[in-house]
Amino acid sequence: MAPSLHDDPIDDSISAAAPPLPQMPPIKVTIVGSGNWGSVAAKLIASNTLKLSSFHDEVRMWVFEETLPTGEKLTEVINNTNENVKYLPGIKLGKNVVADPDIENAVRDATMLVFVTPHQFMEGICKRLMGKIRSDAEAISLIKGMEVKRDGPCMISSLISEHLGISCCVLMGANIANEIALEQFSEATVGYRKNKEIADKWVKLFHTSYFMVSCVQDVEGVELCGTLKNDSWMGWRWGTTQRFISGSKLIILCLYQAAIMRIGLREMKAFSKLLFPSVKDTTFFESCGVADLITTCLGGRNRRCAEAFAKNGGKRSFDELEAEMLQGQKLQGVSTAKEVHEVLSHRGWLENFPLFSTVHEICCGRLPPTAIVVFSELAPDQSRGESRI
Amino acid sequence: MAPSLHDDPIDDSISAAAPPLPQMPPIKVTIVGSGNWGSVAAKLIASNTLKLSSFHDEVRMWVFEETLPTGEKLTEVINNTNENVKYLPGIKLGKNVVADPDIENAVRDATMLVFVTPHQFMEGICKRLMGKIRSDAEAISLIKGMEVKRDGPCMISSLISEHLGISCCVLMGANIANEIALEQFSEATVGYRKNKEIADKWVKLFHTSYFMVSCVQDVEGVELCGTLKNDSWMGWRWGTTQRFISGSKLIILCLYQAAIMRIGLREMKAFSKLLFPSVKDTTFFESCGVADLITTCLGGRNRRCAEAFAKNGGKRSFDELEAEMLQGQKLQGVSTAKEVHEVLSHRGWLENFPLFSTVHEICCGRLPPTAIVVFSELAPDQSRGESRI
């Protein structure tokens, strides 16, 4: 028997037929951030708010104002053309996306806040928004990374919750933003803490026929998947780049590829569970876990930069290569590797994380990129029976 | 800090220094089976029995006797040349491998029995060996597949245990036999039921510097990983072959690749846990799980045959393509898909396993290979929030 068919994966018939009750005004959504991924999020959400009567059509997007080379303001161009010409050129966001250069104005009426900025700006933004948002607002973070402080790492979702006094879900997955913008198939996972109803609202807001969203009750697990996969990916890239260079056969490469992905996934899971014992094993089987890691390894956007690093034997620094190849962007895995290393080192866990440790040593120039291929060292537990982590 | 270095991943110093006590004669190992994978197992084991004083040097290998085109007996050629010229030509097995055409003689003195034959022969072999083996023997199965009977599926390890009255571990992993024979890096997982000491002995017997073996206390989980990955792999191959043919960009393909692997892994785990509630989630993070699946998808040996099936739109049967392309071998996933389908259908679980169900429909010619790419159907649970399985 073939699987049953579903014409429309989200059942919106009830909300479409019955208008919202007077005491439930349509939900207003604001996106805090308007880079590449933020603009794609705006497009996804704007297509859904138009269809779902429980949401206000308009999607407000806070844009860090810039003056373009033409002399025009970025917000004006977005509002006139429905296009973020700087960070997502060629893609119409939807006429109901309104770019707003005033962050306080942008968030004022929103009850659903989507945070999607570079992670180093979040603490400042949170401080600025304290007391400026509705008390019944809900947040979601699409931001990868964490803040490492003296008393331990702080996830971005916690930063938002603690500063703004609101609950915060996360959405992670294989966010190859330009491909999602072209409406190519992709997946993501929403992590929530307690309230499944709110998680379902986020799923509804993001899910489209080409962007498949599921949810799991595990905020930290989902968030750490998104954060740590970059660390695993760099190890994978260097491990397999060596093989590419040596011109080995494809089939041999596959065994290496699979083994490093597995070790990366194992360290991601072990690190997450040591930090947050509530993290569930099953989260790593979701889109945010194994699928995002495989996608990142096989097709990640910063591939060329990591490969160039390996081809130069680690002799040209990341700062140099990033400046040359990534037009001012940073290679996310490098800062993650440093943050993860700080935690591992501080807690005395380094020897249980040979892949993460080695990746950091390579990033710092203390080991060559070839260090990844030494498997008897990468998997010391394996050779002695059961894994310790 | 760099990870600590280990010159020799297996610590054999104690057994090398202290000869075995008189009451502990060296362990004798027999391999039941001498195909491609069986011959590689013989090579791995024979290199270890020479090094480890707790094992008898000689490794006996039961060979189903054949007369070669030259008129010689296969066992004689193996014993004269140390090479299985039919199933692993060009590779020296080790002088301490003795081919024996008499199965009862081969197993008589062995206390460690390695089963590695095509799975359809195992029931007959077990019946033949009843009462012919030592009562203190231990077994391990390297065989993928299961026997589906009226009262449910029977794993090969259970078949061995039940018929021979001995405990049986399993060893599964990315067994691209020809690559392991060339001493290229690979990994495997031993699954054991209760006795960790016996599992450690198996690890010692198989582990080499290029073949990394770990163990987990989960026989059924490890065995089902090995069995079910072929089902997932076929779905993956067809799903991604469509994309190859349509000439889409690499990065889009990666998202599909990762998504189908994830769904395959999810169904493998769900199926295993429904059949055997003792199966552990963590087993799927081992080499036998995620790594073997990725390896099989990226480099599996029967890739050409599955691709040819898709390119012909399913119009040429597997029987036809196998005969043409696999020199008499069968594409393992096809029979697994049928066995899995019988279980799912009998227990009313079909709708929770859209990938496995669709793969079987394609194998039977009731759906075209293109059926795999319809993602809203493949992942119906995803679109409605949390997975049911």
Automatic annotation (TrEMBL), chains A, B:
<dbReference type="InterPro" id="IPR008927">
    <property type="entry name" value="6-PGluconate_DH-like_C_sf"/>
</dbReference>
<dbReference type="InterPro" id="IPR011128">
    <property type="entry name" value="G3P_DH_NAD-dep_N"/>
</dbReference>
<dbReference type="Pfam" id="PF01210">
    <property type="entry name" value="NAD_Gly3P_dh_N"/>
</dbReference>
<feature type="binding site">
    <location>
        <position position="64"/>
    </location>
    <ligand>
        <name>NAD(+)</name>
    </ligand>
</feature>
<comment type="similarity">
    <text>Belongs to the NAD-dependent glycerol-3-phosphate dehydrogenase family.</text>
</comment>
<dbReference type="GO" id="GO:0005829">
    <property type="term" value="C:cytosol"/>
</dbReference>
<dbReference type="InterPro" id="IPR017751">
    <property type="entry name" value="G3P_DH_NAD-dep_euk"/>
</dbReference>
<feature type="region of interest" description="Disordered">
    <location>
        <begin position="1"/>
        <end position="21"/>
    </location>
</feature>
<feature type="domain" description="Glycerol-3-phosphate dehydrogenase NAD-dependent C-terminal">
    <location>
        <begin position="218"/>
        <end position="373"/>
    </location>
</feature>
<dbReference type="InterPro" id="IPR006109">
    <property type="entry name" value="G3P_DH_NAD-dep_C"/>
</dbReference>
<feature type="binding site">
    <location>
        <position position="330"/>
    </location>
    <ligand>
        <name>NAD(+)</name>
    </ligand>
</feature>
<feature type="binding site">
    <location>
        <position position="144"/>
    </location>
    <ligand>
        <name>substrate</name>
    </ligand>
</feature>
<feature type="binding site">
    <location>
        <position position="177"/>
    </location>
    <ligand>
        <name>NAD(+)</name>
    </ligand>
</feature>
<feature type="binding site">
    <location>
        <begin position="301"/>
        <end position="302"/>
    </location>
    <ligand>
        <name>substrate</name>
    </ligand>
</feature>
<dbReference type="GO" id="GO:0042803">
    <property type="term" value="F:protein homodimerization activity"/>
</dbReference>
<keyword id="KW-0560">Oxidoreductase</keyword>
<dbReference type="Pfam" id="PF07479">
    <property type="entry name" value="NAD_Gly3P_dh_C"/>
</dbReference>
<protein>
    <recommendedName>
        <fullName>Glycerol-3-phosphate dehydrogenase [NAD(+)]</fullName>
        <ecNumber>1.1.1.8</ecNumber>
    </recommendedName>
</protein>
<dbReference type="GO" id="GO:0046168">
    <property type="term" value="P:glycerol-3-phosphate catabolic process"/>
</dbReference>
<dbReference type="InterPro" id="IPR036291">
    <property type="entry name" value="NAD(P)-bd_dom_sf"/>
</dbReference>
<keyword id="KW-0520">NAD</keyword>
<feature type="binding site">
    <location>
        <begin position="33"/>
        <end position="38"/>
    </location>
    <ligand>
        <name>NAD(+)</name>
    </ligand>
</feature>
<dbReference type="GO" id="GO:0051287">
    <property type="term" value="F:NAD binding"/>
</dbReference>
<feature type="binding site">
    <location>
        <position position="301"/>
    </location>
    <ligand>
        <name>NAD(+)</name>
    </ligand>
</feature>
<dbReference type="GO" id="GO:0005975">
    <property type="term" value="P:carbohydrate metabolic process"/>
</dbReference>
<feature type="binding site">
    <location>
        <position position="121"/>
    </location>
    <ligand>
        <name>NAD(+)</name>
    </ligand>
</feature>
<feature type="binding site">
    <location>
        <position position="332"/>
    </location>
    <ligand>
        <name>NAD(+)</name>
    </ligand>
</feature>
<dbReference type="InterPro" id="IPR006168">
    <property type="entry name" value="G3P_DH_NAD-dep"/>
</dbReference>
<dbReference type="InterPro" id="IPR013328">
    <property type="entry name" value="6PGD_dom2"/>
</dbReference>
<dbReference type="GO" id="GO:0141152">
    <property type="term" value="F:glycerol-3-phosphate dehydrogenase (NAD+) activity"/>
</dbReference>
<feature type="active site" description="Proton acceptor">
    <location>
        <position position="229"/>
    </location>
</feature>
<feature type="domain" description="Glycerol-3-phosphate dehydrogenase NAD-dependent N-terminal">
    <location>
        <begin position="28"/>
        <end position="196"/>
    </location>
</feature>
